[in-house]
Every structure is written in structure tokens, then in C-alpha cells.
Input
Amino acid sequence: MILKKKDLFLIAFFLCLAAVLLLCFNKNAGTGIAVVERNGTELYRFDLGKQKGTQVIDLGGEYHVKLLVEPGAISFQHSDCHDQICVRTGKLSKPGQAAVCLPAKISVRITEGQKTIDAFTG
Amino acid sequence: MYKEKKLAYLLFAVLIVVIAVLACILIKSNQKPVSYECTNYAMGTYVQQTVYGKNSQQAAKAAAQKIGELENLISWRRSDSDITKLNQASGSDWVSIDPKTAAILQKSLDVADKSYGAFDPTILPVSSLWDFGGENQHLPSKKEIQKYLKYVNYKELRVNTQESTASLKRHYMAVDLGAVGKGAACDEAVAAYEQAGADSGIIAVGGSIGVFGTKKDGTPWNIAVRDPHSSETQSASLGAIDLRSGYVSTSGTYEKYFTKNGVTYHHLLNPKTGYPENNSLVSVTVVCDNGALSDALSTACFVLGREKGAELLKKYNAGGIFITTDDKIYLTKNMENTFTLSDRKYSLVKSGV
Output
């Protein structure tokens, strides 16, 4: 009935697996909010967790910036800027990620999903 | 024999993993509150509701119905409303009104009195001349304004809440509860949520908001304050209020306005001059424990200006956010821990009042 080292390792492995799965489930709950700003002023806020279907947001301006909002992700679809860094950044989906189109002064950042706006006054 | 034991241990480990995952799924599904969201049109604006709990749909529908009923009582545009009856009987007799109408009129008179007439529910003779947002929106002549301004006087509106009656002392006087109605509608909705047994809920009637109960995750309701520079169709927020309970209303120059000969005229009229109040404020947001009061107070504070407005709020234990034309945000002391600025274009001034 005495457990061998090998068996203990196996049990520990499964316990770890359970812990990892637990963490994964908890992480999935916090889908981010995409905040779109021009020159520091907030233009849009998308709850990526609630986003159904794809949506192209035409921000216009000198660089004709277009954003692509999808379920769980947002990206710069188009910009006439020279360096194209914003477009090449690709899809943003996790809190903390950000992409900026410096020439157009447009930034997109993902914040924690917990602070969604419940209502708007004004 | 040893192999059997080993298999048993492994099966036990797998069982732990399965139980853990199932437990997670169960917890998550229990955390997801039953909610019902709906949008309809009332009080000349959109009404948005999100209600949580088993009776969420029933609660939201009851709230929408109550708001409709309230509009039928207090809108001067409805031919058979209490306010129309009162306006038509001006200068003659007392009229019987619903206790709800009487209570709202009484609250309006209280704010009118404490704001020394900066808010006046008898503004209709002048506000109808401007007709902001209406088909006949225009700049009235000085003569017209002077002619009708003398009929704007809240002291000549008398309300008896015990008998549910009201009267307007002089002919041509008329009541407009447009600056109270949206907040009063929030009061109705919150009462309906409670009555229907909902867990929690939030209602927005235009720029007036009411919350009921606490959010399932225990965090405060997050109320975004509109950036006055943003357009109506693409509203951006300049910050947010953490609201545990109560009501929020905003009065802003950007809500209804028109431009004539290069001059912009907004709908927030000073009852003493009959003209839009221009005192370097763009908007005032008020947080209070009553919807109708928060709505009336936001209008009163806008007309009074920042300092006198903050003094008025003290009388109601209410909080205020005053936004000026030069992008400064003044907070009353009780708002300092609940408002968070997110737009760096604005600068925050804690007035300490």
C-alpha cells in the first residue's frame, strides 16, 4: 500500500492539471474592453466579450483609419500612415495589449473587462 | 495486484480533475445572473433598462408601463394629462390631480424655493416660445420674452399634496415638468423593480439614471459621464461615477440647441431673464437619493452656477460635477472618491465644497 515516488508524481501531475484548468476558467471570464482614443479623447468602447459578428469602424480623418472589431478581438484594418505599424500589430484581445497609429494619433487599448459601463449620463 | 492499485490511484486523480472542472463550470453558470435588457421610447427620449434576477423581464415591463403612465400624467403635451388640466385652469380654479403628480410638483416647488427660482416649474410660457427641439424652434423677440416672462413665477403655483390638488394663480401661467420628468421616471422604474422582486437593475431615461440593488459581483454601478465635446451619436465619456445606490442626472448645453446669426442658444433657460444661461458651464451632473430631485437639481445648479449650485446641493446632501467651457471639472467634496477622470484633456479641480 506504500506509494512509490512515481505514483506520487502522477498524482501531483493530475492535481496540477486541475489547478491549471481552474485558472484557465477564471481567466476566460475577464474578456477585455477595447478603448479607442483619438488624441487622448475616448471615441469608442467595445466589450469584446459581448461583440457579436464583425464590425468595421471607419474613423476617417487624414489617414482614413479603419478598425475591425470581432468577437474577442480588435485590430487596425487600414491606415494610410507611412509606417503601417498599427496595422502590423495585428489583433488585440487581452487586457494590457495596445496598438497606436501615431500619425493619426489614434490608440486602441484593451482594459480589464470588469469595468464595463452600466449607463451613460449627459 | 500492484498494477491494480496503480490504476486505482490514476483513476482517482482523473476523477479529481473532472470534478474540479465540473465544479468550475457550475460556479460560472451560477454566477451568470439572469438578466433582461430592453430599450423603448418615452418622455421624448430612449429608455434603456437592464434588470437582473428571476423576475427581470416582468420587472422591466412593469417599469416601462409605469413610465408610460407617468408621462400621461405629467406631460404638458398630452391633452388629458394632469399638467394640461392644471395649465388650462390657470387663473381660475384648483384642479384634482393624481397623488404622484402632486408629489412631483411639490418636489419641484421645493427645489424652486431653495434655488431662489433658478429652477422654475412654471417656465412653460417662455420655454414654449423657444420650443427647443420642437418644430417651431426659433429665437423669440425681446418683446415676446418680456411679455411672457411675467407669467413665470413658481410662487404662484400652489400644491396641496394631502388633497392632491393644484392651482396656478394667474391666467396664462403654465407648468412644464420637462426638467423633472426623466428623473421621476427613474424613480418609477426603481420602485417597479423592487415591487416585482428583481435582484438589481439599472434604468437610463435620456441622461437620467437610477440604480436598484447591488451588482452580482459586488462592484458599484459604473456610470459614464458624457464628454460635452462628443457628438450625440458618438458619445464619448470623460470619466465615470461609481454608484452604489441612488440617481444621476445631467443638464448640458449640448442636449438641445440651435445657432442663429452665429450665436448658439441652448435650452437651459434662466427663469429670471427668459434667455439661455451663459455662465461658463457646459454641464452639471448631480448624484442624489431621488430621481426627480437629481433631475431638478441639475437644471437648478446649471442656472445658479458652480458656487451657488454647490451650496444648493449641500441642502439635499447631493453630489455634483460641474464642467466648464475651459475644460475644467469641479467636484463637490462628496464626489471626490466616486468620480474618476479618464480624459486627460480635462483637468480636475476638487472644490472641497
